[in-house]
Amino acid sequence: MTGYYEELLVEEQEAVTEVIQLLLRQTFLLERKFDKRAGRLAFVKEYRTCSKHLEFLTEYFKVAGIELHENAQMGLIYIQGETLWGEKLPRLATIYLLILKLIYDEQMAAVSSSSHIVTTMGAVNGKAGEFKVLRGLPSPTEMRRTVSLLKKYQIIEPLDVLEELNEHTRLIIYPCINAVLMGDDIRKLLNTFNEEDNIGEESAVQGTLEDMPE
Q1: What's the predicted TM-score (pTM) here?
Q2: Half-sphere exposure of residue 109: CA atoms within 13 angstroms, side-chain side
Q3: Could you say which DSSP state residue 89 is in?
Q4: What is the Cα–Cα distance from 62 to 155, expressed in whole angstroms?
Q5: Mind listing the pLDDT tens digit of every residue in the chain (214 residues)?
Q6: CA dist 71 to 28, 29, 47, 76, 155, Å?
Q7: Cβ(16)–Cβ(53) under 8 Å?
Q8: Largest separation between any pair of C-alpha atoms in the chain
Q9: Can you point out the beta strands (E) in the chain?
Q10: How far apart are CA 114 and CA 105, in angstroms?
Q11: Domains in the chain and their CATH numbers?
């Protein structure tokens, strides 16, 4: 295994090392992310590096009891393992995460030709209202803080100015939401958040959200 790495050019070795560190920090890699300057989805070089050296990286992570998966259709590479611990999320962030997954699945089922889904804050809060999981509409500050947190984890990407967030603010939902919530009954989970439930202020989701850089 080390022989493969040692035979790479120094520049390629550095790129592989960077990908390993990145996956350990953020759990998943997206093939494409929205580039606001270009106004379109752009390819992520780290994803290409990981895909190119996938066999080596799979064996590397296997030593630590971590599985490396690639979903080429969705443009997603992610790691899973019992040694990976997730960060607890505030209640509102957890609710939004579940709602975003529900919206993502519904739109993907509606013959979507893209793995990236676009929704709005109004649609998110409206769907949350249908499930009665919010104790009133969150304040603009709470919503901005929550959107910023989910952006940090590469779950979403606001297409409009966050400081002017309102019901018309557009959000890209990235396919890595499937690496956070996999095989869960989202509607059932949402029902545990209704107003009558006596739950804490923080909740963990799947143990896959790691402390990531902006």
Answers
A1: 0.79
A2: 6
A3: E
A4: 26
A5: 778 999 999 999 999 999 999 998 888 899 999 998 888 999 999 999 999 999 999 999 999 999 999 998 889 999 988 666 556 788 899 999 999 999 999 998 886 667 789 999 999 999 999 988 888 899 999 999 999 999 988 899 999 988 999 999 999 999 988 877 765 567 777 777 764 454 444 444 444 444 333 3
A6: 11, 10, 11, 5, 16
A7: yes
A8: 60
A9: 28-30, 32-35, 40-43, 67-71, 76-80, 89-90, 117-120, 156-158, 170-173, 202-203
A10: 12
A11: 2-80 (no CATH), 89-203 (1.10.10)
Q: What share of the chain is helix, strand, coil (3-state, %, to 5)?
A: 45, 15, 40
CA distance 62 to 197: 40
Q: What are the angstrom distances between the C-alpha of 84 and each of 33, 80, 94, 108, 146?
A: 24, 7, 19, 28, 23
